[in-house]
Design a protein that fits this description.
Layout (H helix, E strand, L loop, with lengths): L4 H8 L13 H12 L10 E6 L2 H10 L11 E8 L8 H7 L2 H19 L3 E6 L4 H11 L5 E10 L22
Antiparallel strand pairs: 1-2, 2-4, 3-4
Helix pairs in contact: 2-5, 3-6
InterPro entries: Nitroreductase, Nitroreductase-like, Nitroreductase/BluB
GO molecular function, one term: oxidoreductase activity
Pfam families: Nitroreductase (PF00881)
């Protein structure tokens, strides 16, 4: 089997929900955001925007308004991954219907890059969903002063793991199909 550092990183990445109080360094944060912005995107629009949340009061508000963000603590940094839907306004009407939701895929690719980069540099991370639940989108818009043309997709919490869980085997041959379903 072909094995290298990249494949090992992908196969051993795990969701981390418990973080120490040690803060994420500016250098590590820069690496994570650089990796996120290296993601592929539809029509190379790169619709992503990132809101970095380190303020303890804002983190507590996130914890209070997002049901799956209860693991927020002093050491973790929150990164709200958002998409700019205004970038699709220039697309002609024939293509518009097919392209307007590509921001979700693009920002998801950026999110996965961020998660993999966190694992590669020894940090832990967890993806918590925001979009498409309008109640969550609305709360984040208000809390973080997000303009109407920017949509928050998810909140990724990054920090130093208390423990690194063992990776689960996710390979499932039954989910593999060749040539047709």
């Amino acid at each position: 089997m072909i094995q290298n550092e990249t494949i090992t990183n992908i196969l051993t990445r795990v969701t981390v929900r418990r973080f120490t109080d040690e803060p994420v360094s500016d250098e590590a944060l820069h690496i994570l955001l650089q990796a996120a912005m290296a993601a592929p995107s539809s029509m190379n629009l790169q619709p992503w925007h990132f809101i970095v949340v380190r303020d303890e009061i804002v983190k507590q508000c996130l914890k209070d308004c997002l049901p799956y963000a209860k693991m927020i603590n002093r050491g973790c940094t929150g990164i709200v991954v958002c998409g700019d839907i205004s970038l699709y306004e220039h697309i002609n009407e024939v293509d518009k219907e097919d392209n307007t939701l590509y921001w979700v895929q693009d920002c998801s690719a950026a999110s996965e890059n961020l998660l993999l980069a966190a694992h590669a540099i020894g940090l832990g991370a967890v993806w918590t969903g925001i979009y498409p639940l309008e109640s969550r989108v609305g709360k984040l818009r208000e809390l973080l002063a997000i303009p109407a043309h920017i949509v928050p997709l998810n909140l990724i919490l990054v920090g130093h793991p208390v423990v690194l869980p063992l990776p689960k085997e996710k390979w499932d041959e039954k989910k593999l199909h060749y040539d047709k379903y």
